[in-house]
Write a structure and sequence with these properties.
There is one protein chain. The protein has 281 residues and is α/β, with parallel strands linked by helices. It folds into two domains: 203 residues, Spore Coat Polysaccharide Biosynthesis Protein SpsA, Chain A, CATH 3.90.550.10; 69 residues, no CATH class. Helix content is 42%, strand content 20%. The strands form three sheets. Strands 3-2-1-4-10 form a five-stranded mixed sheet, with helices on both faces. Strands 5-12-7-8 form a four-stranded mixed sheet. Helix 8 runs antiparallel to helix 9. It is globular, with a radius of gyration of 21 Å. The chain starts with 6 loop residues before the first strand and ends with a helix.
């Protein structure tokens, strides 16, 4: 199995039995067959357990774990990663689905130089369908400090997840961005595949991206990593934070949030110089 190492796919779920079936079937239908699927039920009270028993009886490589009380998606992901047997690990949200070539494309693209590999994906949002792509064939830690070019899923080794410290269970959102940044601190290069290999459904119910938790998680992630960021990277992150908060960007307010008191005089001088040059030109 050296040419086809075991790949573990983790799927956290909570009260989404109907869409979970679609996600599971998409993994089972992969052209890459040496897989292990671990579903972690985060305290569901719907028919998730019944659905999973049916899949377990039919497929020996499907495993079902459960939290009696909800602990959050990050705790569910970490539970699966700790139980995983695969050399490689990748994830899937319970309301998304893999295209048949997803895993084989990522495995074949992987190289030990990379922190992880990731691919473009189709986004289904309301009545629109578009492809989310990264503009680089390879990304570095410096690229990712501007924004999450990667998205929400990667393939990497089990060892990399542990070396990076697993998912931060204190984050209510942006847990993927935080995780990929920490991986890139260890190996500052990742590879991007330009052809979409999975479908992401942004219209599904109860998505965290539409809740207040999104703003809180994004800001916590920013504070966690801002010391690594340049001024330009901090500005980009704060623009995004103000965007999801529904506020217009204000360069003056952003400068105050962005920097410590010791940096203010230099920054204000820089702003004045730029404005003078603009007037002269």
């Amino acid at each position: 199995m050296k040419q086809h190492p075991l790949v573990t796919v983790y799927i956290p779920t909570h009260n989404r039995a109907v869409v979970l079936e679609r996600a599971l079937k998409s993994v089972i239908s992969q052209t890459y067959k040496n897989i292990e699927i671990i579903v972690v039920d985060d305290g569901s009270v719907d028919k998730t357990e019944k659905v999973m028993q049916q899949f377990k009886e039919k497929y020996s490589f499907v495993k079902y774990l459960k939290h009696d009380e909800p602990k959050g998606a990050n705790a569910a992901r970490n539970y699966a990663i700790k139980e995983a047997k695969g050399y490689f690990i990748t994830g899937l949200d319970d309301d998304d689905e893999m295209l048949p070539n997803h895993i084989i494309e990522l495995v074949e693209a992987y190289d030990k130089r990379y922190a992880y590999v990731f691919a473009a994906f189709n986004v289904f949002e309301d009545n629109k369908v578009y492809i989310r792509r990264c503009k680089f064939d390879h990304i570095t830690l410096n690229d990712m400090l501007y924004k999450n070019w990667t998205g929400n899923q990667v393939l990497t080794t089990r060892k990399m997840f542990f070396d990076a410290g697993l998912f931060d269970e204190s984050l209510p959102a942006s847990q993927d961005y935080d995780m990929w940044l920490r991986m890139l601190k260890l190996k500052p290069l990742a590879k991007f595949l330009n052809e979409p290999t999975y479908n992401h459904y942004a219209t599904s119910h109860n998505r965290i991206t539409t809740s207040k938790k999104r703003k809180k998680g994004c800001f916590q992630c920013y504070k966690k990593h801002k010391e690594m960021m340049s001024i330009a990277q901090r500005q980009q992150n704060l623009r995004y934070l103000r965007h999801i908060d529904g506020k217009k960007n204000s360069s003056f307010k952003m400068i105050h949030t962005l920097n410590s008191i010791q940096k203010w005089p230099r920054l204000y001088l820089g702003l004045i110089i730029r404005r003078v040059i603009k007037v002269i030109n």
